[in-house]
Amino acid sequence: MEDILAILLIFGGGTLIAVSFSPIGKAIAARIRGGGPTGEAAQHLLAEVDDLRAQVADVDQLRAEVAELHERVDFAERLLAKKPAGELAPPGG
To answer: CA angle, corner 47, sides to 45 and 53, nearest 5?
Structure first.
């Protein structure tokens, strides 16, 4: 029993030490300390946030355009509903 425990401690401890010095271990340590991403990862995240903000602005602009088109269609429908069928101009004229 003690032999198995010693083997687990040796190999488990060695594995933990190897992981702690790897980039994954450093990232886990930074996350535990509360630090955010640094360097290239932070620049990449900032670029993605800027792209998303630009896309949100585009979507807002499209929504405004669709709302304006909706109002125009409603206006045209009201105009057409007021005129009797005989008073409509012939197509192309």
So the answer is: 105
